[in-house]
Design brief:
The protein is of the alpha+beta class. The chain has helices at about 5-10, 25-35, 40-45, 55-65, 70-85, 230-245; strands spanning about 40, 85-95, 110-120, 120-125, 140, 145-150, 150-160, 160-170, 170-180, 200-205, 205-210, 215-220, 225-230.
């Protein structure tokens, strides 16, 4: 096992045995990743250059302890899984959360996810959603429900939208994202959103931490604590405290 894989596993605090590729191992790696590496769009919001090459992403996330957008996070996680012997395919999706149903397709943000094949069954594995999303692999089976604690998701499929991942919100189903089986070719190349807000999110063992500009929200069980920073110094301190990110 090369030193980069060891660095990666140390960074996500993975201490379990590395067995042959299994869905159990995939779930362990995915959960550790989500609890250790934040989603964040700071390079986009601050208009910094972004590279999608493995060496550059590795340097940014593992060495400099940053987070990344969906493309960076899932590209790097895909590399790790492939190095560990998993069969992985990248897929580009349309990200529908919080959008109106009649939103023009060209205005729908792009998203990247992974499909992992195990024993003839495909599973969604995604470490790049900057909000609530499954922490475990989701079998790609139409009509399948997937529960994680208080969170409930389901998979559907039709000709118009391809595969669709829904989340349950207050007894209604909301479309999270959709993708087609062939959505990995040139016409689906990564397209960064025009998001101007600074966003970050990381899972924790008891909940999650989120950031929207200068507002930090700490969810622990049923409790919510909100911090609003008043200046750049406080913002940088909160960014490091809640996401372990240092912008230096």
């Amino acid at each position: 096992m090369n030193s980069q894989i060891l660095q990666y596993l140390k960074h996500i605090h993975f201490q379990g045995p590395l067995t042959e590729p299994t869905i159990k191992l995939l779930g362990q790696l995915q959960t550790r990743h989500l609890n250790s590496i934040p989603y964040e769009n700071l390079d986009v919001a601050l208009k910094q250059d972004i590279s999608f090459s493995i060496p550059d992403i590795f340097q940014k996330i593992i060495i400099h302890k940053r987070g990344g957008n969906c493309f960076e996070l899932n590209i790097l996680f895909s590399w790790l899984l492939c190095e560990l012997g998993f069969s992985v395919t990248n897929r580009y999706a349309q990200f529908w959360r919080n959008l109106e149903a009649d939103t023009p397709i060209e205005d729908v943000p792009m998203h990247q996810l992974l499909l992992v094949n195990y024993a003839g069954q495909s599973y969604i594995s995604d470490v790049g959603v900057g909000a609530l999303a499954p922490c475990k692999p989701v079998p790609l089976i139409a009509g399948r429900l997937h529960r994680e604690g208080n969170e409930l998701y389901k998979i559907e499929q039709d000709d118009a939208n391809g595969w669709m991942l829904y989340e349950q919100t207050k007894h209604t189903w909301r479309l999270l994202y959709s993708f087609f089986d062939d959505a990995n070719d040139a016409k689906f190349a990564p397209r960064l959103s025009k998001q101007k807000n600074k966003i970050a999110m990381i899972r924790t063992p008891r909940g999650r931490h989120t950031m929207l500009n200068n507002e930090f929200r700490i969810y622990e069980g049923q409790s919510l604590t909100t911090y609003t920073t008043q200046n750049e110094k406080e913002w940088l301190q909160a960014l490091h405290r809640f996401f372990h990110i240092s912008l230096d």
